[in-house]
Amino acid sequence: MGPATSDSSSAVRRRAAPWAVIALxxxxxxxxxxxxxxxxxxxxxxxxxxxPASADSTQAEKLQQxxxxxxxxxxVLVYRRDGGLxxxxxxxxxxxxxxxxxxxxxxxxxxxxxxxxDGSTLMFPVSxxxxxxxxxxxxxxxxxxxxxxxxxxxxxxxxxxxxALQTDLEAVxxxxxxxxxxxxxxxxxxxxxxxxxxxxxxxxxxVVVGVAALVSRAVIYGLVQGFDLTVTSQSxxxxxxxxxxxxxxxxLLIVARYREELRRVPxxxxxxxxxxxxxxxxxxxxxxxxxAGLLCxxxxxxxxxxxxxxxxxxxxxxxxxxxxxxxxxxxxxxGRRVFWPLIPxxxxxxxxxxxxxxxxxxxxxxxxxxxxxxxTVLLGALALGALxxxxxxxxxxxxxxxxxxxxxMATLAEAYPDRSSRPIDVLAPTEEADSxxxxxxxxxxxxxxxxxxxxxxxxxxxxxxxxxPETAGETATIERLRDSLDDAxxxxxxxxxxxxxxxxxxRDRLIVIPLVLAAVMLILTVLLRSLVAPLLLxxxxxxxxxxxxxxxxxxFGPVLGFEGIDPGLPLLSFVFLVALGxxxxxxxxxxxxxxxxxxxxxAEAALTALRTTGGVIASAGIVLAAxxxxxxxxxxxxxxELGSLVAxxxxxxxxxxxxxxxxxxxxxxGRRVWWPGSLSRGAEKATSAAPMAEEPVRTGG
Length: 701
Hints:
21 helices; four-stranded antiparallel β-sheet
């Protein structure tokens, strides 16, 4: 009676547990549907959401929002005729500007046109506080001005300035979520179909990762409401890529191990339990390294980087939760038939065929020193390309296709080479405003300065440099202004913001990179119970990052024509490549450790691990690289650069570093790779490496 009762209760548990998991996720989805769509409403893309938290430019931006009328929308209207402007042209331009001034409450005096020396161009600085911090009102104002200046009797007219640039940026950001979601879904779907060669199986991980993406958006919205978390369009877009990339990787590993166990275990429920016991620690450690690496960004002073940390970590954790619970539940309920037509029957053997990764492992085993040395030299040579990386990306070079605001800046730079068209904003205490104005006007490199709004004890001063925006000359002028003005005054504006971004990201790298390395080393040490293996994996991903940056130096400027790299690119690419790259090292090393714990010798353990995990690691690497490559489809240089670097780095890591270099190093180290753990002690089993190259891998058949 006892055994029968036990078997009956086990059967009930096997049937009920998956349905209970699905029911819980159904509730989570129902709740998430209410809030996920609202995430776009709370995304913030104002300058202060990206700027360094403690920088002068950030404080200046915040103080400007407190002045009468709040934040101003600053435009520059650029009228141009190549043959030279006529008196009628200048009158028509002034009439249009006067009409705009009559409709909108502009700050300062009546706008007067500033002619270029060659007489071909006339610029009108226009500023209004009417839109305030309302993004829709600001964008409507910019659109109205562009419409009002569209017909100018043969003259070309361009609307530029910070306000127009912000409107153009938001037009791009507004399309990021939908574009990324659709493109990522398509890429993942195609890759899963190719990987599984099944008309049904690919749908399961795709639907589950979609659920994870939906829930993560709802969780982030809750964090925004509860903790005032800053979410930008950039961080939300990267989170989408992370959820789909990391989630699909975890699914590939779990499904591959589940397929193995179905051949050895009769019941799908028991096979899934065995699969999760086998690969669960690796998946948990993998997600833990990514989440820990991202959370290290909380130590950054750059607002956009610090906000990305928890946003990305939430996405990874949601992907992990879905893949470790919902995916197994659905697969168990669908049973073996979900693998049709390549159903893994109980007691069957996989189709025997030559395994590519066994062959790679065999070549590494025959000449481990040569393979390791050649691969290291190759990666080192690629890393030298980083010396050719372009300088810091200017604001006007942030688009892959220049919008009107950027075209206006180029026109101004050409027509007014001896005067900046973009003011440097100085915020000084009102009681010291006169002296600050005098100091500003007498500072070397300043063409002029004028007093602006006052309120709340602060006064705004617009300073115009003699040099063009974001040139070395203007940067030197900003630094001289900060040195000469009192400590209580803040120097801001777009050019000062770019300067602060560069300086802050440099400091952030010195803080965040060691934290990421320490966090990853700690997790790997706990998982692998070794110091040598984690050090090997971390060194490998750092070398991959260097090689990826080097390839960027060879491609970004010479091939793609980019004028610079985003100041935050080195740090963000490092965090993603180290945290995500270690994933594949974890999959490989964890399986190697399993084999070693079963008594396999070092060579046998290394080559068996490569043979059995090589296929799934390759599939996962291709999926992750493809999802990050989707970022390169966006019209923002920063996204193209980040997506390209991570995609190339992941492919290098997958097909060169994990396959050849880590395997070769493990073969050379032998049991020492597990030092000081217990596996580092004991006699090695004599194992012939060459025959391992001929052994088949368990595949879809």
